[in-house]
Amino acid sequence: MKKRVLALVMSTAMIASVLTACGGGSGDAPAADSNTDTTEAETTANAETQAEAETENALGGPPAADEVVVWVADNVTDFTKEKLAEFQEANPDYAGFSIRVESVGEGDAATNMITDVEGGADIYGFAQDQLARLVSAGAIMPISGDYATFVTDQNDAGAAAAAKVGDTVYAFPITSDNGYFLYYDKSVITDPTSLDAIIADCEAAGKNFYMEINSGWYQPAFFFGTGCTLTYDSDDTGNFTACNIDYASDNGLAALKTIINLKKSSSFQNGSSANTATNYAAIVDGTWDKDTIKDVLGDNYACAKLPSFTTDGGSKQMSGFGGFKLLGVKPQTDATKLQVCLAMAQFLSNEETQLARFDAVGWGPSNKAAQQSDAVKADEALSALAEQLSYTIPQGQYPQGYWDLATSLGDSIISGDYDNATDDELMSVLEDFQATCQSYAQ
């Protein structure tokens, strides 16, 4: 199936007329689709075209004119179906549109949309680091008017920023829980606020400390902790225009030496998945693994923000990235279908739905009012993450080359390549890393 980017063929005035936020109630009744007579030959051709499309698209083919296709992660597929059934019941004016919900993970959704925009979903969930790619491919429409105000006013600052490219809002945040923090065994770890103390306790008890240092996601916890910067600027079309980085500095050197010293500990294990971790008393991980860790640690289960670490410049708080899940809407050629898609996306991202999603699958809300729920605040993992997020930066858009480069740096550390390196040699490593990062924005 050929990749085709849909043109949004509405004037500014028409866009303004349909971008009126719908808080769950019904709006003006959409015009019913008119049926046109077709010849037998046309009917046969249409049937063959549809059959071919369904064969080529394993997810059931592109949306029909009166059908809204929604892609969400597998563990919220049933939940989304239930919520959209509620939406349909509350909005009888949209009864002319059917809904098809399919299980597509956040990472796969972006790739599928970019590969075949027309064949992709009308509404889809994705991780915010995919936004620039989606914008460049014309696979996501900008959001304006009351919907943009809803995004910026209702969600926390990190989530609202993650939904933008430049000053333009492109998506509806649904979570603010894609970050990492410390899980630990409170019978072993005496001071979870200090990395040095954690490592000492693990070594004394013959237990492991897990952190994935060969990952561009976890590695910045040290560099950002010492005050380094690594961000990319992009224009409204998603192209990288500049790299803001100062890793080749005294702060960068302090961070790199800390990672190297951590790797030298007998307790250190490279990794961040509780499903494969063994004999651990502490692990840097996210909310997605909390049930597994609870099962392992039992009554000794505990959570905290990331610890501080000691360098020549004093004590530094580990930092890192914060991440978010977003909902995007594909550009539409029909104004009425666009209105329906935007209303559905807003409904799936509002306070009530985010709280219901938290109750159903434990996803942490991005909606500020939902975050104040007693149930959300009582969740130990989300509470630790919320504290940690105050020390992090929202993950913006990064080129693929950065992730590969960070993995290479971490692999070299794990292999012991820098165990006996001088400060000058380590600074040379950082200068090469910095120059390569900058080259991705040229």
Give the terminus-to-terminus CA distance: 33 Å
The Cα radius of gyration reads: 24 Å
Known CATH architecture of the largest domain:
3-Layer(aba) Sandwich
Count of DSSP E strands?
18
The main pleated sheet reads as: 5 strands, mixed
Per DSSP, the total helix count is: 18
Here the CATH topology of the largest domain equals D-Maltodextrin-Binding Protein, domain 2
Give the helix proportion (percent range). 40-55%
Overview of this structure, please?
This protein is 42% helix and 17% strand. With 442 residues, the protein is of the alpha/beta class. It has 2 domains: 12-33 and 47-177 and 324-366, Periplasmic binding protein-like II (D-Maltodextrin-Binding Protein, domain 2), CATH 3.40.190; 181-322 and 384-439, D-Maltodextrin-Binding Protein, domain 2 (3-Layer(aba) Sandwich). Strands 2-1-3-17-6 form a 5-stranded mixed sheet. It has a 5-stranded mixed sheet with strand order 11-8-12-7-13, with helices on both faces. Strands 4-5 form a two-stranded antiparallel ribbon. A hairpin with a 2-residue loop joins strand 4 and strand 5. Helix 10 packs across helix 18.
Write the layout of secondary structure elements.
Elements: H1 12-18, H2 40-56, E1 67-72, H3 77-90, E2 98-103, H4 106-115, E3 123-127, H5 131-136, H6 145-154, H7 157-162, E4 164-165, E5 168-169, E6 172-173, E7 181-185, H8 195-205, E8 208-211, H9 220-225, E9 230-234, E10 240-245, H10 250-264, E11 268-270, E12 280-285, H11 290-297, E13 301-304, E14 308-311, E15 314-317, E16 321-322, E17 325-329, H12 335-349, H13 351-361, H14 368-371, H15 374-378, H16 380-389, E18 393-394, H17 400-414, H18 423-439
Parallel strand pairs: 1-2, 1-3, 8-11, 8-12, 16-18
Antiparallel strand pairs: 3-17, 4-5, 6-17, 7-12, 7-13, 9-10, 14-15
